[in-house]
Amino acid sequence: MLRLGLNALAISKLKKSYGNKPALRGVSLTVEAGEIYGFLGPNGAGKTTTIRCIMDFMRPDGGEIKVLDSDAQKNSVAVKKLIGFLPADNQLYEKWTTRDHINFVTSIRGAANVDKLVKRLDLDPRKQVRHLSTGNKQKVGLILALLGDPKLLILDEPTRGLDPLLQHEIYAILKEYVAGGGTVFLSSHNLAEVEHICSNVGVLRAGEIVASKSMSEILAMNVHIVTASFRGDKKPADLKIVGAETISSANGHVVLKVRGDINPVIAKLAAYELADVEIAHAPLEEIFMEYYRGPS
User: For residues 149 and 118, is the Cβ–Cβ distance under 8 A?
Assistant: First the structure.
């Protein structure tokens, strides 16, 4: 088991450009041993480039990456032995069976008994990959990533193509892996997934980390959605409140997103003849969109 307080992954000032186009602009983040860390961002933000640099599939233009205190570039072979990797574009041999893949990876990374895991994920190990669904190929990829007793799992969209029941089974497997001393670095677009299993998250936008917070801090962000219906002559279009953004306004009905103190909005609404009003905490997706959109 990894010792408490050790960083499983530490990235410092990572930079990478494709020609004249910067992909990473000084990315820095740390993932502590024994956690599930969510790595989030819209398409094109630089998530895959970051992962490829961690895996030493490409070399950064600057910065440093350490996996369990070992330099990911200088000690690339040794570091890869510590990592279980599931890429977004999981490539398998179409004519091989699941068992063929397991035997091959085991011959490289060491012996492993995965029969219980194969059964748990409802896989027929005798089927050729070409006869498997996208979801079943994902399951094969996850099993291969877990072979060889890795200390760090790097997973790119691990539950893509899986139905909700199997998604929850994957979550259970990852939690058990972490309870056994492992660490997970998970890139995902599924915010419900991130909320369910991640303890900390980093948000990447345009090659820069724009937020690095615990999930509890994210959920505690003071963002509300206010829905109000009006009577009388005053129209919702007349409603102008500092700190409130109008999401929609039509037919005597307005939806506002409020950042920060809700009381000025309540006071302003009190001047109107209301038919109905509802105040709710913004959903996780809306909170993360605050980071994705960037400054207006």
Answer: no
Look up the pTM and report it: 0.83
Distance CA(224)–CA(202), nearest Å, equals 22
Output the CA angle 249-42-226, nearest 5 degrees: 25
Q: Which H or E run contains 33? A: none
Q: Write out the DSSP string of 226-264.
A: EEEEE-SS--GGG---TTEEEEEEETTEEEEEEES-SHH
Contacts of 111 (CB under 8 A, 6+ apart): none
227 - beta bridge partners? 255, 278
| Alpha carbon distance 180, 203 (integer Å) | 27
DSSP readout, 281-293?
Answer: EPPHHHHHHHHHH
Three-state DSSP class for residue 54: helix
Distances (CA, A) of 188 to 41, 43, 70, 177, 204: 8, 11, 26, 18, 12
Residue-level pLDDT, tens digit, the chain, 296 residues:
444 558 999 999 999 999 999 999 999 999 999 999 999 988 889 999 999 999 999 999 999 999 999 999 999 999 999 999 999 888 999 999 999 999 999 999 987 788 999 999 999 999 999 999 999 999 999 999 999 999 999 999 888 878 888 899 999 999 999 999 999 999 987 888 888 899 999 999 999 999 899 988 887 777 889 999 988 776 655 567 777 888 888 888 889 988 888 888 888 888 888 899 999 888 777 777 777 776 54
